Every structure is written in C-alpha cells, then in structure tokens.
Amino acid sequence: MTWILTSPQSKVQKLKEATKGGKIFSATFEKKDGTIRTINCRRAVKKGVTGKGMSFDPASKGLMVVYDMQKQSFKMINLSTLIEAKVNGRTIKFI
C-alpha cells in the first residue's frame, strides 16, 4: 500500500503515527548538498542520551531526530526534503 501526501502537516503526522513505539523504518531524503540518501533508522532511542538536551527544538525547524541503525548515531531528517518512507511494508511518498 502506498500513501501519497502533499500537505506538509500530513507528512509529519503520518510519519510520526507510523513510526511510534520505536519502529524501524527507512527514509529517503535530499541532503543539504543535494545528494539523495536512504537511511535505516528508528525514533525514540534512549541509547547514548546524556540528559543534557539540545540547544534548540528540532521540530520548530522542521527536523526529525532519528537513530541511524547502520552508523549507530543520531541524525536529523529535514521533513521538507523527505521523498519517501517505508514502514511495516507500506510506502509513504511525499510530494
């Protein structure tokens, strides 16, 4: 099943809803340098969190914090450049 979403708000909502509970998913997005990257990641990871927090709110800048399963580090996905995400065998396409 494929969902195609055009509204920026529905992007965030559908992705957060589909990945709640720390589900592993893949996301394809455009990086700052213009290259396309696919990342296998998950949200809500507690490993490596020091408790200091961040100096800014990523959600206010349109970013989603994820844990990269291959590089084993935290990364940020810019939701405005998100192309697609695959969760539980479903593809969510963002245009």
Question: What features would you highlight for this structure?
Answer:
95 residues, mainly beta, seven-stranded mixed β-sheet, 12% helix
Short overview:
The protein has one helix and seven strands. It has one helix at residues 8-18, and strands spanning 2-5, 24-30, 36-42, 63-68, 73-78, 82-87, 90-94.
Question: What do these coordinates show?
Answer:
This protein has 95 residues and is mainly beta. Helix content is 12%, strand content 43%. The chain has one helix and seven strands, in the order βαββββββ. The chain has one helix at residues 8-18, and strands spanning 2-5, 24-30, 36-42, 63-68, 73-78, 82-87, 90-94. Strands 1-7-6-2-3-4-5 form a seven-stranded mixed beta sheet, covered by helices on one side. A hairpin with a 2-residue loop joins strand 6 (82-87) and strand 7 (90-94). The radius of gyration is 13 Å and the shape is globular.
Average pLDDT works out at 81
The number of helical elements comes to 1
The main pleated sheet reads as: 7 strands, mixed
Which bin fits the share of residues in helices?
Answer: 10-25%
Total DSSP E strands: 7
| Main sheet: strand order | 1-7-6-2-3-4-5
Order of helices and strands: EHEEEEEE
